[in-house]
Amino acid sequence: MRQRRVVTALAVPLVLAFVAASCGSDDSAPVVTTGDTTGGATEETTAPDDGAEVTTPDTEVAVDTTVAEPAEAGVYGGTVSMGLEAEANGLRPWEDGCASGCVNMSRTIYDPLFAQSGAGDYEGYLADTIEPNEDFTVWTMTLRPDIVFHNGVPLTAQSIADMFPIQQAGAISSGTIATVSLTSVEAADDLTVVYTLGAANSAFTSNLANVALGYVFEPGAAAADPDNFGFAPVGTGPFTLESRDIDNETVVVRNPDYWRTAENGDQLPYLDSVAFRPIPDEGTRLDAVVSGTVNMMQTLRGGTVRDARETGLSMYEFLGSGTGGGMFNTAEAPFDDQRVRLGLTKMNDQERVIEALGNSGISERTTQWFSSSSPWWTQEAADTYPEFDFEGGKELLQEYIDDPARSDGKAAGEKIDVELSCPPDPTLIAAMQVIEQVWSGSEQVNVSLTQFDQSTHIQNALGDLHKAHCWRWSGEGDPSSSLNPFLNDPAESVGNLPNFFDTEMYGWALEALQTDDFDERKALYSQINQRINEQAIIWYSGGTATAIVADLAIRNVDNWTLPSGNVGLGAPDAQTFFAEMFLSDQ
Amino acid sequence: MPKTIAFILLRLIATLLAVTFLTFAMVALLPGDPVDTILGTAVRDPAVEAQIRDELNLDDPFLARYGNWLGDAVTGDLGRSYITSQPVADTISQRLPVTFQLAFMSIFMSVLVAIPIGVMGAYKQSKWQDSLSSAGVQVALSIPNFIFGIFLIWLFAVQLNWLPASNWNRFGDGVVDNMRTALLPALALALAQMAVFSRLIRSDMIATLQENYILSARAKGMSDRYILFRHALRPSSLSVMTIIGISFGGLLGGTVVIETLFAIPGLGFSLINAINARDILVIQGITVFIAVMFVVINTVVDLLYAVLDPRIRRS
């Protein structure tokens, strides 16, 4: 009798929990999702409680400058807690590597000098204007007046000049400084800063929108205690750091003296605080926002975007120029032979890989460094990307296999050995298996699949230990920031991961920095993309979709504005600005 | 007694030397360069790269680097993470209470459930109650804790909204809030341990129940409950006590998966992040700390044997 009671005592709560689970879920959130997903273009429309329609930017056309502001007045107060894919290494812009989660955090504390508008160009944020000289080697920037750091120190041109020596010694900023050949930063007067470069760079402004060079910190505080600055950061941003519990929670609270106001005159920011919580597991992060543990999250995975669409929460998707795929290490046989690279690329069915990645209906087929919505995309480059052609690929491989002088040292007629490596993400593994099946199916290739954790995967690429290797490229910034390190001499640039150096192609990349004529630059980048495709250095697996998933009450998630009043770029890489965000009371 | 203490200290020092040396060697053998982790794929300024190498002594021979680290560590300076710039001692002191609480709660929950199940299994040996509990234990053992964790999140966070899906409220933020975040991960960790503990208690209890003094107690007309819990349970707890000690030590560094799943800032989560980032000083600091805790816990378990069993105390 007693034992029966024990069993009953254990069983009853579990049964009750199941019963409650089956009755208690509420999936009836008032969200309407409309999607033209056939061509990768996706439009999400959410209908908040008040019936006002909030339309997120068209995710294929990366930016929609006509996005209407919600006809709802901002509401002061409240906290937004955001689940991040990873903890920020640190909050020192010059020293700590800053990935997507870190950028979100940094934007609450620091303001950038420039930011991208909805049209994709760079507009002043802390900066008011910038003008280059004729050969793009001297850039004169003026700052907005009457801005102060969190510690009360005024932002002046001298602040920017004093940041420079700290940035020069910084692990992260020093790389950008070397890339753009920035030799000096001087204050001409209170608000005028002069940047001098050692080489022409018509896209220099784009660097002033990045964390490494463009996020403004108070140099006096940074110089006084550089090691601990990340735990007591001082910027000009809409929030100040309240607490930083690494790997758990970082809380920022409203900066009452913030310099920006909304268009209607409201003092910004609206929120009392923002809490950032790193939740590395994609499933748990989504569960956390569905269950209300956090009320907003970011994801950089197409599979999670797909799952999040089913939750009834507000989706702020962005499918810009980020693209996934893989690369061949051309310093290693047999990938030093163009026939092998091209043959394997032709045998790679991109549509099936996109499907395996869970990105069907989310991302589209990619043919170049830019998505078809990018202003840099060209049909000429698209036409040169190898179509799926299994037999054509086999022919090329057979030519190499039968070549007595084949570079891998094997005897003519022997199969090619290919090692394909990706991080152990379930969707990447599925994609890798699709590629492996096709390559192996040719009966010309021995494919071995390897998986390393993300860090080792990157280390292998940097250390030239890779063969055929998954990777992600590009982004919304100026093409020069991602392409130039990729094309530079591998002896000088660790960013040239395929180790393919073509002096003519790199010359085009440098030429594109000597003019600000858009059409001229576009033509040069098109030539580069055509050469990359002809040489089959990399293969594409579709664009990389990202999203911010938010509670229905949160407004202004991705339609933030620049000080000029123009709409900003949205939420590329699941990054946004928080000054205008608020919690609706409707 | 002084002899015993000296022996324990010697054992601790030898263990720590071996652990730190092996950890240092294994980290050194990992592919890649810590500088790559810090600088990433960006273009590099050679001067800055050289400065980082110098600061981290990366160009020194392996033994020199280990010697430097050991010299600092014995003075209490475990260094500073080169990824987060946080002192390693702070990293450990912030994370230890989290992992310690998780380990304690999971062990406590496991024991709480394992004792009645184990005792019942022994008392009703070969009857349906024993078969049922054995089947339940098999199921519990065969479910990986992260799968159970995912199920718990789905049930208690997503469907019922009773408990948070992730993250951690520190004890100082309120006991109730803290318990709400600790319950699910502790439960996920407890399942397999509960199964192991109940099996051990059952098998030890079966042997104990055949002892003469148990037969004598029965002959005196004592109730079964009194015999089971007053006379049989204590001597049947030695094996499980050993396992509890080992499990507790193991949990201090072995909660990686659950801490990652629930985004809990414990030692395991920190350790795996440090390994991924090749953050040598953090890896070393946490590993040494776990090793110390292991030795201390095993020593405590040794002492507890004597408390539980008078025969050991006398010998």
Describe the 3D structure.
The complex is a heterodimer of chains A (586) and B (315). Chain A has 586 residues and is α+β, with helices and mostly antiparallel strands. Chain A has 18 helices and 22 strands. Chain A has helices spanning 2-24, 100-109, 157-168, 173-179, 204-207, 211-214, 219-224, 282-290, 302-308, 338-346, 350-356, 379-384, 390-401, 426-441, 454-462, 479-487, 503-511, 518-535, and strands at residues 45-46, 54-55, 79-84, 114-116, 122-124, 127-132, 138-143, 182-187, 192-197, 239-245, 249-254, 273-278, 296-299, 314-318, 323-328, 416-422, 445-451, 468-473, 538-543, 546-550, 554-555, 582-583. In chain A, the strands form 6 sheets. Chain A has a 7-stranded mixed β-sheet with strand order 10-11-12-3-13-20-14, with helices on both faces. Chain A has a 5-stranded mixed β-sheet with strand order 17-16-18-15-19, with helices on both faces. In chain A, helix 10 packs antiparallel against helix 13 (390-401) and helix 11 (350-356) packs antiparallel against helix 14. Chain A is globular and about 75 Å long. The N and C termini of chain A lie far apart (56 Å). Chain B has 315 residues and is mainly alpha-helical. Chain B has a domain at 95-278: MetI-like (MetI-like fold, Orthogonal Bundle). Chain B contains 15 helices and no strands. Chain B has helices spanning 2-29, 34-39, 46-55, 62-74, 88-123, 128-142, 145-159, 175-208, 212-219, 224-232, 238-254, 256-261, 267-276, 280-308, 310-314. The longest helix of chain B is centred in the middle third of the chain and has 36 residues, at 88-123. Chain B is globular, with a radius of gyration of 24 Å. Chain B starts with a helix and ends with a helix. The model of chain B has no long low-confidence stretch (mean pLDDT 86). At the A-B interface, helix 1, helix 4, helix 8 and helix 15 of A face helix 2, helix 3, helix 5, helix 7 and helix 13 of B.
